[in-house]
Amino acid sequence: MASITIRNLDRDLKSELKIRAAKHGRSMEEEVRNILKSAIAQDDKEPENLADSIRERMAPFGGIELPDLQRDDIRKPADFS
Q1: pLDDT beneath 70: ranges in the chain
Q2: pTM of the prediction?
Q3: CA 11: distance to chain centroid?
Q4: How far apart are CA 58 and CA 73, in angstroms?
Q5: Distance from CA of residue 34 to its chain's centroid?
Q6: Is 68 left (phi over 0), alpha (psi -120 to 50) or beta?
Q7: Residues 31 and 20: beta-carbon distance below 8 Å
Q8: Alpha carbons 31 and 1: distance in angstroms, whole number
């Protein structure tokens, strides 16, 4: 298995990474592996329809029922003769 070294990592970034790893119950190294896997997986996805993306993102919050709105007939175009 390959390994990499990351130099000049910002102190604040390292701190945030440590906190994130602790929240997920993982080591920092494992957290970085998961972040990299996730980033690569997102790049492999085909672009989605905007409406589908919004629907997927909002699905956990549940749906709402909107009332049907009555629409008027299309107006006749103006006569400029």
Answers
A1: 44-45, 47
A2: 0.52
A3: 26
A4: 33
A5: 16
A6: beta
A7: yes
A8: 17
Q: Amino acid identity of 23? A: K
Q: Which of 31, 29, 28 is nearest to 4 (CA)?
A: 29
3-state secondary structure labels for all residues of 7-51: CCCCHHHHHHHHHHHHHCCCCHHHHHHHHHHHHHHHHHCCCCCHH
Q: What are the b/e assignments for 31-41, b being 16+ CB within 10 Å?
A: bbeeeeeeeee
Q: State how far the Cα of 11 lies from the Cα of 17, in Å rounded to an integer.
A: 10
Query: What's the pLDDT score for residue 65?
Result: 82
Phi and psi dihedrals of 8, rounded to 5? 55, 40
